[in-house]
Amino acid sequence: YAEGCPKLSTALHAWPNEDLSPDLEQKIQGRLQRMKLREGSEMKTKTRLLTVGGGGLIVAFLVLVVSMQVYTQRGIQGRLRGAADNIGAPSTAQPLAKSSQLAPQKLPMSEAKSVQYEPYYLSTNYKAETDAGSQIFGASRKLRSAADDIGDQFSPGNVPVLRQVKSMSLGAGLAERSDSWDERLRYNPQFNTEQYNRIYENEFLEVAQNPLSTFSIDVDTASYSNMRRFLNSNQMPPADAVRIEEMINYFSYDYPKPTGEHPFSITTKAAVCPWEPKHQLALVGLQGKTLETDNIPPTNLVFLIDVSGSMDQPDKLPLLKSSLRLLVNQLPGEERVAIVVYAGNAGLVLESTPGSDKQKILEAIDNLKAGGSTAGGAGIQLAYKIAKENFIKGGNNRVVLATDGDFNVGVSSDGELTRIIEEKRKDGIFLTVLGFGTGNYKDSKMEQLADKGNGNYYYIDTLKEGKKVLVSELGSTLFTIAKDVKIQIEFNPAQVKAYRLIGYENRMLAKEDFNDDTKDAGELGAGHTVTAMYEIVPVDSAETFSSVDKLAYQKTEVLPSDDLMTVKLRYKDPDGETSKLIQQTVKAEDVSAEPAGDFQFASVVAEFGLILRDSKFKGDASYEHVRKGAAASKGKDTYGYREEFIELVGKAQALDTRAESGTPGINFKGE
Question: pTM of the predicted model, to two decimals?
Answer without folding.
Answer: 0.71
